[in-house]
Amino acid sequence: MTEQTMEAMPPDTGDQPDREERSVGTAYLAMIGFPVGAHRWYLGHTTAGILYVVTFVLLALARFAFRERVEADFAPIWTVAVALVVAQLILDAIAIPRWVRRDPEAPLPAPLLILLAVLATIFVLPLLLDALGAVFTAVFGRDRVGRQVAMMVIAILGVPLVLWGYVVMVEHMLRHLTEVWQRRVRPWLWLAPGLFFLYTFLVYPTYGTIRRSLYDRAGDTFVGLENYEWFFNSPNTLIALRNNVLWLVFFTGISVVVGLIVATLFDRVRYENFAKTVVFVPMAISFVAASVVWRFMYVWNPPNANQTGTLNAIIVALGGEPVDFISTRSINNFALIMVACWVWVGFCMVILSAGIKSIDRELLEAARVDGATEWQVFRRIQLPLLAPTIAVVTTTMLIFALKTFDIVYAMTNGNYDTNVIALEMWSQFSFNQYGRASAVAVVLLAAIVPVMAYNIRQFRRQEEVR
Amino acid sequence: MNVSKSLRRFWRFVALTSVLVLVVAACGGDGGTTTTAGGVTTTSGQSGTTEPGGTDTTAPGGGEELGGEVTVYGTWGGAEEEAFRAMVAPFEEATGVEVQYTGTRDINTVLSAGVQSGILPDLAGLPGPGQMAEWAQLGALVDLSTVIDYDTYVEQTSPGFVELGTVDGQLVGVFIKAAVKGLIWYNPNVWTGGDLDSWDDVVAAATAHEGAEAGWCIGLESGAASGWPGTDWIEDFVIRQSGPEVYDAWYQGQHPWTSPEIRAAFEAYGEAVANSYGGSQYAIATNFGDAGQPLFTDPPGCLFHHQASFMAGEFFPNYPQSPQPGEDFDFFVMPTINPDFQGALTGAGDLFGMFNDTPQARALMQWLVSPEAQQIWVDRGGAISGNNQVTEYPDPISQKSAEALARAEVFRFDASDLMPEAMNAAFWQAVLDYTQNPGQLDSILANLDQVQADAYGG
After folding, report:
1. CATH 1.10.3720.10, chain A: domain bounds
2. Cβ contact (<8 Å) for B226 and A413?
3. B12 min Cα distance to partner chain A (Å)
4. Tell me: the pLDDT tens digits for A296-328?
5. Angle at CA B28, nearest 5°, toward B26 and B33?
6. Where is B223: in which H helix or E strand?
7. Interface contact flag, A431 B420, Cβ < 8 Å
């Protein structure tokens, strides 16, 4: 910043160089907004005109008032404002003249009032955020917490407000349609925001990932299936594939079988709730925290030193040699799988236990009266009746097995042949190999989709039975 | 219902729907009304106006009252974060600028994503020169020669560091802190032979390991970065056995891993592992920070520990035996191996770059490169300044490290940090694999060659 510009500006504002530019932009907006508002005023919509002009003047004033707080980016507001102006012009061109001709004295149509209210909310939100941020800053000192609290308040109040405005507006618009068309159009308008978010956050990224997987590292050359070729030929990814198979079989198998055993046995004891709680508690621990806990469990020390790892302490106390669970290739994958099972058995147990509870007690009693042993009751009555629940739990676990990431990343980072597909995707991303990372993601997606589809179908069938 | 009425209804519907669509579309672009600090604030008004400041750095920021804030991301946490905060405290006081520091271990991921999305801090500690060069080529980094006084910086910084921060003729990274690698730490109460200046003597002493259970202490565990201490070993062998030319070609991807030079370095490292406390299993399972503990145990576990200068600042003092610098631990620089490459040294440093050109960021950058600022960090112990005007160190060990850096005839940056991320990660993994299975060196090196052919593609 040169000395001249420093002098030209008020000395105490701590000016940003781009501030002027932005304020000019806001002034332009006010200039566009004002005639549009004035035009509406002229047409007889006094309320609309006043609202319009006031909104823009307020916006411009607020922009100047809060110019020290340049953190909030005002560009999106301009986008909204321009859209508003264009919308107004379209309305003026198509709709308003008809209304004006029919009844020039008519008050502002309700949908427009609401539209303005919604837009005003969108306008005012960031300004409010800034204002609240300033207030909180004044209260809490120079801390970002204030801003975050303000942000939270606005999110909690503002988002439902905007959605409410949207729904009300949709209903007002629908009034102009015949009933047949109302019925045809209403669900789509109600769904529109949801579909919009679904498209933005699910459909488009999926499409983008698939497309990206067909391009090279830089993303500008089409390479066909080269990234997939790499995936199925690189030793690292093949090890990852093998490990995912291990995860699929052992993680799913152990957690479902243990969950089933625990659920069945606990169903027959008096302290059932306490026992179930104990098994369920690890569910509340994040994978990364569980990994840290188990790293301590698995700690290895030289044979002559004190064993600080719980498991090795036990092994040595029993006269064995300490085992490095993390780096010994024949067991490390199972050591990692055990951590995941420890976390997830509780989940399997709870779902299966609910399934067991839903079986009619009289069926079991009848079997027992007929002389069935407990094993026969379990094998011939409970198990077949539980089959749909077991299927849902198993497929859910299969999906978790396929997308395993946290435990491997936190415990070994894929070293010592413990890599898995999801971690490989992350690694390729961190190597700036976006094409390969996308290809891994697509493979993972392709593996998960059929399981997912089966899972949902099974779940629906189970719901129907109930 | 007549035709004209339903037509009118139709038109009203079309009009309102189009408004709705526009609003939704506008809101769609609205996701970022509250972009986080430093978000998309790119500036244009400042082009061409170069700050003449930097000459008068005694007052941080030239003593101007600026206000506002500057966001900084770095890898420092704990004691290092405290040191950084102490370093910027006088700056904040003098300029009124608030420094918003965020420490993250995942700086590479955070900044990579930021370079793609545009959401970046004003200043950041960069993961390494390799990654820095990639970002500079994408135009994400500000040319610092327009920010700091370039001539003063060149004068006060070793040419190696200036060169490492320069990409395509632009200075995009500066060093505010340095570390010397390839130091051999010992406990003077156990190893009484003092500083050695011949590698053969070191090997002889380690092989005899008189008074200790083994010659070396090695620890490779470091979370997701496990293996890096071994890469330091290998780099130190490459530069001392085969010289800077091989070293440069190697990290640039032009010298194969299967070559005799690199193989010799791996094998020399393998000999140290074979003569280390607890053997390869200990090396794999032990955290690099804790690995030196057997130096101080009774009976001593090992004679020597190969690690960078930062051990003196953050790790040794926190051991349960609370060893004292000079009395309980001391070091000598890993001696020359091939006399053709006398005085070769490797090291590393914390690179700092600028993503958003704001007056506050400029002022902070000017402060950070100044000797006054760097003295603050150095005074807290364990760190070496990148600025050669900083000559006062709080303890003899730091002083000795700084002198070693100043004395180095050939200085090279940590090679693995200069390699592309994929090569670096493969190198870490290779060290772990080799430590575990020395017999598989052939296939490990062949695999590294394969990664090399792939990773440098750009």
Report:
1. 226-465
2. yes
3. 6
4. 999 998 888 888 889 999 999 998 889 889 888
5. 85
6. none
7. yes
